[in-house]
Write a structure and sequence with these properties.
This protein has one domain (2-207). Helix content is 82%, strand content 0%. It has helices at 2-33, 41-61, 63-70, 79-101, 106-115, 117-134, 138-144, 147-152, 154-169, 175-188, 192-207. The radius of gyration is 19 Å and the shape is globular.
Length: 208
């Protein structure tokens, strides 16, 4: 009975989280309908979707520190949803850029990837999230076994690239970007040992 009640509580929390994460998208839709996105709506849409992708990425990475600080594993049950929504908003960010800013001019996209470093690192950040989203299921965890956590440490690379993407394109006010950087550094401090061990293994692979 207690277990069933706890499952119902967790399900309710997941539904609430699902709805909460979709609120920014709903508000963006309202702004689009009411034409409240300023003189450059496409750029505003790209900024908002990218901003929420970054925020959700940081929230996703906050799950493990929260587990350590609170001593409960309950947080883990919400990490997959947060990660998938991170990919969702990052994909919306990319689609907004391709569709509304470039008008689906693929040659222009290729030119931007070659000529604009912040576009390049942003695209690679999104690419790093693709395999993580695909392999987020329990079935893929079973298939990959010990390689699954190693693969999903790529989220740290995605975070680094996303931060570079953000900082590189900011021309005047770095305050918001620095807030994200400081939050990321704080979250990474909880994983310093794992990150260092991953770097050591990677360096050993290249030295062979």
């Amino acid at each position: 009975m207690i277990t069933q009640t706890f499952k119902e509580y967790r399900f309710t929390c997941k539904v609430a989280l699902f709805v909460l994460i979709l609120v920014p998208l709903f508000l963006l839709f309202i702004d689009v309908v009411n034409n409240d996105l300023g003189p450059d709506p496409a750029k505003a849409m790209a900024h908002i979707t990218g901003e929420w992708a970054m925020r959700l990425l940081l929230v996703t990475l906050a799950i493990s520190p929260l587990r350590k600080l609170t001593g409960t594993t309950e947080w883990i049950h919400y990490r997959r949803m947060l990660g998938l929504f991170t990919f969702f908003y990052a994909s919306l960010h990319l689609l907004t850029y391709c569709f509304f800013l470039l008008g689906l001019e693929w040659r222009q996209l290729w030119a931007d990837l070659l000529d604009r470093p912040y576009i390049t690192v942003g695209f690679f950040a999104w690419m790093m999230l693709v395999p993580l989203a695909i392999t987020s299921t329990k079935d893929w965890q079973r298939r990959l076994g010990r390689r699954w956590p190693q693969l999903h440490r790529c989220i740290f690379i995605a975070l680094l690239l996303a931060l570079l993407h953000l900082i590189w394109q900011v021309r005047s006010d770095l305050s918001e970007a620095l807030v994200y950087v400081f939050i990321a550094l704080f979250l990474m401090s909880f994983r310093s040992e794992k990150i260092l061990s991953s770097v050591r293994r990677l360096s050993q692979c290249f030295s062979k």
